[in-house]
Write a structure and sequence with these properties.
Elements lengths: L3 H29 L5 H12 L3 E4 L5 E5 L5 H15 L2 H10 L3 E3 L7 E9 L2 E10 L7 H42 L5 H11 L7 E8 L6 H18 L4 E5 L2 E7 L3 E3 L17 E2 L5 H15 L5 E9 L5 H17 L6 E3 L6 H4 L5 H22 L3 H10 L4 H8 L3 H15 L6 H16 L4
Parallel strand pairs: 11-12
Antiparallel strand pairs: 1-2, 1-5, 3-4, 4-5, 6-8, 6-11, 7-8, 9-10
Helix pairs in contact: 1-2, 1-5, 2-5, 5-6, 7-8, 11-15, 12-13, 12-14, 13-14
């Protein structure tokens, strides 16, 4: 049976612990009333409990860390190592269900780890972790209570940051909207918006429109797709201007210094990025657009994206035109039935003019009038006449170059062209007939009916 002095000592230690607990609560609550951030909360807890403290995201990224005698970077490295060694993923998953602080015993009688979810409404935005070194005067419940209350304060901080970020985001989105649509009262106002957004008119830029198609996932999933793409672009092109709109994400990305010029882009978009120039450092807009498509396909296979890249713009007044081109590129790809692809405005060639015709049947009718008889002949005989005509026109009427491309004698090319004239009624010596044949071939190519 404990003596009276022993019981007095126990009561004194318990009172001391309670006073310390009240002091910590008081300091933490004071931080909630100030403009404190997560790092300030972690530093205060680390100082009061003399141990390592950190805040990690649900994906275990360190958001803040502090420890006695450590810089924030050193504390973050120590916390990252601790997280990896303790394999916290499954444990934090269970915390998402219980939503209460939990103690994890340390290996070989080492310090235990206390984890508490940081809640904002019904969402778990992060987890507060404290390394608990056993102290004779403190019971296990104290560290649980301190960590849980600390997590509550972190929730207040993150809630405030979320509100501020949302407000700033709305202002920024408004400026981006004005820049993309050219809605300023005068050029000076538009230039001011551009400077506020970090747009540097001394460099060439391009506008990327990443559009979610109508058969993409529901609104919540669509938002997750755009948020994931926004983070991806922020890592790949930190200086890009990104705006998430309804069923669309817009990126204003800077062109990169070319290492070497590649072949001039052809007129036909492809599933992967067209063969544009190679760039130094972070990717240019067209490779970035292709990387965004690959990222979305990997993480969100059900999401259907179509991506258009507008022409080059430098002055802020040119951004709206480049955005309109990006949107037209998306619309053209959709009309061509080529959803889920990436194309730049210049890659569309004459298609961007042809597909302004409201009724595609008018284009089909024109192509049938000019080359319908030749296509019927090809379907029956597979004689290669249509390909010969296409190569001949692409080689600017050179029999020799067409023959080399087709691996035949020039006389064979002449014979085939004469057969084309017999079947179609065209006179390939006349400029107008050659032009009609070339336009008809472009229509058939665009509509994939050749």
């Amino acid at each position: 049976m404990a003596t009276v002095p022993a019981r007095v000592d126990v009561a004194a230690r318990e009172n001391q612990v309670l006073r310390e607990l009240v002091t910590i609560y008081h300091h933490l609550t004071g931080l909630a009333l100030q403009s404190a951030d997560l790092q300030t909360v972690a530093a205060l807890l680390a100082d009061r409990i003399a141990s390592l403290v950190g805040v990690v995201s649900p994906t275990l990224d360190v958001l803040a860390a502090a420890g006695p005698g450590r810089t924030p970077a050193e504390a973050a490295a120590g916390l990252q190592q601790l997280v990896a060694s303790r394999r916290l993923g499954p444990v934090l998953g269970s915390l998402a269900q219980t939503r209460r602080a939990l103690r994890l015993p340390g290996p070989d009688d080492g310090p235990s780890l206390v984890a508490a979810p940081v809640l904002v409404g019904d969402d778990i935005l992060a987890y507060l972790l404290t390394l608990d070194r056993p102290r004779a005067e403190a019971g296990e419940d104290v560290s649980l209570l301190v960590t849980e209350h600390g997590a509550t304060i972190c929730g207040v901080v993150m809630s405030r940051e979320r509100v501020v970020a949302a407000a700033a985001g709305r202002v920024r989105d408004g400026l981006v909207e004005g820049l993309l649509l050219g809605q300023a009262r005068d050029p000076e106002e538009l230039q001011g918006w551009a400077r506020h957004l970090g747009y540097d008119g001394s460099h060439a830029h391009r506008v990327i429109s990443i559009a979610l198609d109508e058969d993409s996932p529901d609104g919540g999933q669509a938002r997750r797709v755009c948020d994931s793409l926004a983070h991806f672009v922020a890592r790949r092109a930190p200086d890009a201007i990104v705006s998430v709109r309804e069923n669309e994400m817009v990126v204003v990305a800077r062109e990169r210094e070319a290492l070497a010029d590649a072949r001039r882009p052809g007129p036909h978009p492809t599933k992967s990025a067209p063969r544009h120039r190679d760039f130094v450092g972070t990717p240019g807009p067209v490779p970035l657009a292709a990387a965004c498509l690959a990222h979305a396909e990997r993480l969100f296979p059900r999401a259907a994206l179509t991506i258009g890249v507008g022409g080059t713009c430098r002055d802020a007044l040119e951004v709206a035109g480049a955005y309109a081109q990006a949107r037209r590129t998306v619309g053209t790809l959709r009309r061509l039935g080529r959803r889920g692809q990436v194309a730049a405005f210049e890659d569309l060639g004459i298609h961007r003019l042809l597909l302004q015709v409201p009724d595609l049947e008018e284009l089909r009718s024109f192509a049938r009038e000019v080359l319908g008889a030749l296509n019927d002949h090809e379907a029956r005989h597979r004689s290669g006449l249509a390909r010969t005509l296409a190569v001949y026109l692409r080689e600017n009427g050179s029999l020799q170059r067409a023959a080399r491309e087709l691996h035949v004698h020039p006389n064979t090319v002449t014979y085939r062209l004469n057969r084309v004239e017999d079947i179609t009624g065209l006179d390939l010596d006349r400029y107008q007939d050659r032009l009609m044949a070339q336009v008809a071939l472009e229509i058939l190519e665009a509509l994939e009916e050749r």
